[in-house]
């Protein structure tokens, strides 16, 4: 039995929420043993498989954190949401969507199948590797560092400090990622890349190796929840039209071939990464009863033991539990 799982029916206080979340994290930490680390990127195999942490930030500043809250980890596929946003801001939605579709694949994140079987072989969506590599090629600049500069500026606005690339993680992936190179060649053949393949892949590997914490993810989630406007700094960081599309893509494609189940059982836009991070966005919702974070919140989760689809096994269970108990679903 999960500790503290009774229905919420009295006034919501921060101390009370904290007590609930502490109990849930403790419970789901035990279930991380059913998952496996992402050994295919050698450095990710060195993480603590039992780690599990969550950070939640509400629009009014309410913050609940529990478990392994201090770890830095690489952003991996969660960067796909942010580079998509940057490409749309730099090039415009029409330009980007002419080159990457917005359809879920139902396949693994690094699948090559559609690129081979469909003609024209336009990548299905920017949340899977083929689409994200295409998006990386579209970023402004002639080198990977120039291409990532706008991403760094955008992230700094959202999380309050300039993030850094974990060079060891970058090199670990660059030196082993043959499948992404193969995807790159298919994209090159289909004429989808806007810059040189080696610069494109360098950009993609570097963006994947940006280091973040669950607090950073929660802050990013909060901005997305609030349609691109940061309630902390009171600045519009991302245009609303782009934020809405990013959230739709997260909901339909963000958890790869588990996106349908995540939408059904958790019901909020989310994006995972193979380092074990999950970014979840809880939009404001209207309910008759008093519930936590009715005005919306951002959630960051870290749990490096993964399920078969490459999503944090403890993180998904924890999010599902929180969403059920606090009625966070959009639906
Ligand atoms: O391209 C890769 O394989 C990694 N840089 C990112 C994959 C990833 O995070 C998939 N997520 N669950």
Tell me about the largest β-sheet: 5 strands, antiparallel
Distance between the termini: 26 Å
Q: What is the H/E order?
A: HEEEHHHHHHHHEHEEHHEEEH
Side by side, the strands of the main sheet go 2-1-9-8-7
| Unreliable sequence segments | 3-9
The shape, in one word, is: globular
- In terms of DSSP E residues, the strand content is 5-15%
Q: Radius of gyration over alpha carbons?
A: 19 Å
User: Share of helix among residues?
Assistant: 40-55%
Number of helices: 13
Q: Please count the beta strands (DSSP E, at least 2 residues each).
A: 9
The overall pLDDT average reads 95
- Distinct ligands, ions and cofactors found in the model: 6-diazenyl-5-OXO-L-norleucine
Structural class: alpha+beta
Secondary structure topology:
Blueprint (H helix, E strand, L loop, with lengths): L13 H16 L23 E6 L4 E5 L5 E2 L4 H13 L1 H7 L13 H5 L11 H10 L5 H16 L7 H8 L3 H12 L7 H12 L2 E2 L1 H12 L3 E2 L4 E2 L3 H14 L5 H7 L4 E3 L4 E6 L14 E6 L10 H14 L5
Antiparallel strand pairs: 1-2, 1-9, 3-4, 5-6, 7-8, 8-9
Helix pairs in contact: 1-13, 2-3, 2-5, 2-11, 5-8, 5-9, 6-9, 7-9, 11-12
The protein binds 6-diazenyl-5-OXO-L-norleucine.
